[in-house]
Known about the structure:
It is built from 7 helices and 2 strands, in the order H-H-H-H-H-E-H-E-H. By secondary structure, the protein is mainly alpha-helical. Helix 4 runs parallel beside helix 7. The chain is globular, with a radius of gyration of 19 Å. This is DUF1345 domain-containing protein.
Amino acid sequence: MRVSIAFGVGVVVTAIIVVAGSWGYAAAAGWDAAAAVFLALTWWRVGPMDGRTTRAHATREDATQRTTDIILGAASVASLASVVVLLVRASTEGGVARIATIALGLATIVLSWFVVHTVFALRYARQYYAPPVGGIDFENSADDPREDPAYSDFAYVSFVLGMTYQVSDTNISSHAIRMSVLRQSMLSYLFGTFVLAAAVNLFVTLGT
């Protein structure tokens, strides 16, 4: 449902910008709107969940969720192409128009990064609670060593991996989860490389 709502918002925003005659901004702005809505709806729903609620929610996720994850991940990576278009456009603009174009490009990078790692956080929860339960060894508190991990714990794993390209204080003991970690590490490296290239281009653009 949240993906459908986000998609609808993105389509509406894209259409409005196209009608307004700003074709060069339509794809990035539409994606940004869809990504922002997806992130807001997702974390508003799963962020407050404790371990028990997370287990129940993760095990009843829609069977088509894997396809949805692939689409979201592909869209996030593809959205980087629109950033290239925006940076090229910014180099030919000046004043407020240049600043607005650069800001839109930066927003696209940030939102795409958050979408990718949110998708993997949700995926880790589903993989962890799929039979046989486990695959990520969390350091639970001494007060309750059997405490089920919540979505916030899986977010910790995913976003730390996204920022450092490695797991932190959690051990991975599941082959399926290791494969997800590998894919996420590769995407994280791609984003890191792109962000560095975009930053260099940004400084060059602002200096001209």
